[in-house]
């Protein structure tokens, strides 16, 4: 029997010195769903992703991925369970080449001695070249990541996630700070990679959101303001008032 | 395509030049007193190589490497001391058969934890195992709590201070401030003669190369690239599914193992071990050797240890008061002017000119693992 939800977030709360950045938030993500989280600045969008991937420790609540409780797991355990995360600012290893960046994300040899014994075999190379092609960096494999443009770094980070092949992919503003041309290419790339997996995306670009979202959650002050299809959310008077309006 | 080979042509040339210096040039041009001194300098190179991996690649600055150097050295010294303290040699003591300093401190029997050091295999094992065990405990305590950067450096420095105080305070068990002295033979072989010292110099050289090869392997493995990744983007490494703490513990323990071997070779070649080699000052000096040589380069670390120590001997013979100031100035100069040390100067300035001189196109990029200065 296929389970109903891949991710169940229930009563998730985090409080920073009494300020509840996320307040008793619940939402559920189905397999192959693309969930977009929107909301005004400070609504707690990035914090929600931080809580799911273990970067921030929750004060209360539960986050279940399949049947595993993520809140008690370490970041690397969460990743290895199948949750991938892309950060808002591109975070790639600037001193390493594109090839090496992708290689480190390849899901093998992740223990200390595994890493010591890790061999670059044909399979690894093929996979890296394939991914590099997908993210438009096929010709820059030997380039140090420091020399890539902002957009290319974003793509590289997306590639690093792809090579992990996570079941649940979390993207934090993947098209922010990109030129129009890069943005278009990225949208195309994302549309391709969100197939066959569940995705949670934080995004402000409403055109882009409408394009990819299965469902939209609107956050406001750490709580769900509205949830549903793009159309429903856009016509919700509460959403119009706090976010889309003015 | 990417080269993941164990050694590039450039690495092989670098190793070969160093081997020629250590095994051919130094023994030919130096008298046996100076050769022994160079052997002593090279024992610090073991520590500097470990630091180059921990600090240069992994960004983990330890100001307590002297502790591991000292622990290795003390383990060796304990074995040699027991061998020197036969009942015949110590007949004038009130308790013959125990090390002299124990007798002076009114100890009447050997403490139980000295017993294993009657055995050479156990002592040699301890040379590596004891520093690694200490590093492991510190590493687990610090890295799983995500203590890093300056805080880690300060805590390791505190460890160096604690260790010195402990050794000095427990003089009945450790020989106190004098350390363990009057070491004579290794399995009946007198280590004080010139021939023995020359032999030990070569043993030291061979071990140094073994350590260099091990370090080269680590650097060229995926673990080496992970260290650089951790230095730059620790969080990203975590979110690529690695347990960062385990990698830090490993490299810290490896550095400690190297330092322990260096310490044992120091004891053998110099003939004593004392707390002056354990504390804060020697620990910081070891960081300077690594920085001067170029913290990103394992060969640089060896040259750094040699050069700074040679300068120390030369200048402190003529201007003893000025040496510390000179050392401080050197460190500042390295940080401000050439952050990648001698290795950086070589690969950025000297090598391109050499290449141009011989009219060759360069096969490798300069400073393959070079990082922008911090």
Task: Give structural notes.
The complex is a heterodimer of chains A (246) and B (374). Helix content of chain A is 37%, strand content 24%. Chain A has one domain: 3-Layer(aba) Sandwich (Rossmann fold). Chain A has 10 helices and 10 strands. Chain A is globular, with a radius of gyration of 18 Å. Chain A is of the alpha/beta class and 246 residues long. Chain B has 374 residues and is an all-alpha fold. Chain B has one domain. Chain B has 15 helices and 2 strands. In chain B, helix 12 crosses helix 14. The relative contact order of chain B is 0.17. Chains A and B meet through helix 2, helix 3 and helix 4 of A and helix 9, helix 10 and helix 11 of B.
Key words describing this protein structure:
A: 246 residues, alpha/beta, Rossmann fold, six-stranded mixed beta sheet, four-stranded antiparallel beta sheet, 10 helices, 37% helix, globular, B: 374 residues, mainly alpha, two-stranded antiparallel sheet, nucleotide-binding (chain A), ABC_transporter-like_ATP-bd (chain A)
């Amino acid at each position: 029997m296929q389970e109903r939800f891949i991710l169940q977030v229930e009563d998730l709360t985090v409080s920073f010195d009494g300020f509840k950045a996320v307040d008793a938030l619940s939402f559920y993500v189905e397999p192959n769903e693309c969930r977009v989280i929107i909301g005004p600045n400070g609504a707690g969008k990035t914090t929600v992703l931080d809580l799911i991937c273990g970067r921030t420790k929750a004060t209360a609540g539960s986050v279940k991925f399949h049947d595993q409780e993520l809140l008690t797991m370490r970041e690397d355990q969460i990743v290895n369970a199948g949750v991938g995360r892309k950060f808002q600012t591109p975070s790639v290893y600037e001193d390493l080449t594109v090839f090496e960046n992708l290689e480190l994300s390849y899901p093998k040899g992740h223990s200390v001695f595994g890493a010591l014994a890790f061999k670059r075999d044909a399979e690894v190379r093929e996979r890296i070249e394939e991914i590099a092609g997908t993210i438009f960096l096929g010709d820059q494999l030997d380039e140090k990541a420091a020399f890539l443009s902002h957009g290319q770094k974003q793509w590289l980070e997306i590639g690093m996630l792809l090579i992990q092949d996570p079941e649940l992919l979390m993207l934090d503003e993947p098209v922010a700070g990109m030129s129009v041309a890069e943005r278009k290419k990225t949208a195309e790339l994302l549309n391709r990679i969100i197939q066959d997996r569940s995705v949670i995306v934080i995004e402000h670009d409403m055109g882009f959101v409408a394009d990819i979202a299965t469902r939209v959650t609107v956050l406001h002050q750490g709580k769900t303001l509205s949830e549903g299809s793009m159309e429903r959310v856009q016509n919700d008077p509460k959403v119009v008032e706090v976010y889309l309006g003015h | 395509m990417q080269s993941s080979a164990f050694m590039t042509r450039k690495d092989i040339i670098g190793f070969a030049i160093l081997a020629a210096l250590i095994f051919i040039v130094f023994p030919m041009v130096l008298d046996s007193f100076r050769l022994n001194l160079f052997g002593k300098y090279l024992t610090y190179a073991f520590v500097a190589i470990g630091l180059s991996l921990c600090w240069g690649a992994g960004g983990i600055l330890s100001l307590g490497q002297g502790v591991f150097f000292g622990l290795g050295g003390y383990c060796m010294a304990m074995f040699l001391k027991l061998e020197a303290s036969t009942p015949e040699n110590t007949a004038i003591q009130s308790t013959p058969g125990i090390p002299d300093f124990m007798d002076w401190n009114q100890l009447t029997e050997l403490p139980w934890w000295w017993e294993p050091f009657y055995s050479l295999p156990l002592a040699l094992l301890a040379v590596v195992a004891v520093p690694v065990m200490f590093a492991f405990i510190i590493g687990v305590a610090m890295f799983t709590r995500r203590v890093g950067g300056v805080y880690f450096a300060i805590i390791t420095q505190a460890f160096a201070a604690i260790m010195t105080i402990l050794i000095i305070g427990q003089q009945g068990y450790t020989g106190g401030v004098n350390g363990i002295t009057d070491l004579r033979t290794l399995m009946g072989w007198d280590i004080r003669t010139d021939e023995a010292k020359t032999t030990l110099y070569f043993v030291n050289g061979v071990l140094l190369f073994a350590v260099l090869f091990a370090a080269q392997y680590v650097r060229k493995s995926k673990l080496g690239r992970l260290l650089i990744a951790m230095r730059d983007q620790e969080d990203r490494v975590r979110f690529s599914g690695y347990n960062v703490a385990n990698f830090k513990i490993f490299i810290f323990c490896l550095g400690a193992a190297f330092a322990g071997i260096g310490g044992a070779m120091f004891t053998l070649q110099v003939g004593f071990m004392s707390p002056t080699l354990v504390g804060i000052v020697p620990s910081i000096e070891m960081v300077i050797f690594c920085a001067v040589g170029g913290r990103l380069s394992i060969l640089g670390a060896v040259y750094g240890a040699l050069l700074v120590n040679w300068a120390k001997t030369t200048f402190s013979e003529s201007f003893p008061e000025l040496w510390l100031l000179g050392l401080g100035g050197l460190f500042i100069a390295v940080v401000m002017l050439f952050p990648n040390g001698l290795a950086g100067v070589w690969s950025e300035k000297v090598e391109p000119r050499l290449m141009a001189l011989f009219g060759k196109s360069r096969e490798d990029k300069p400073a393959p693992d070079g990082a922008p200065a911090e």
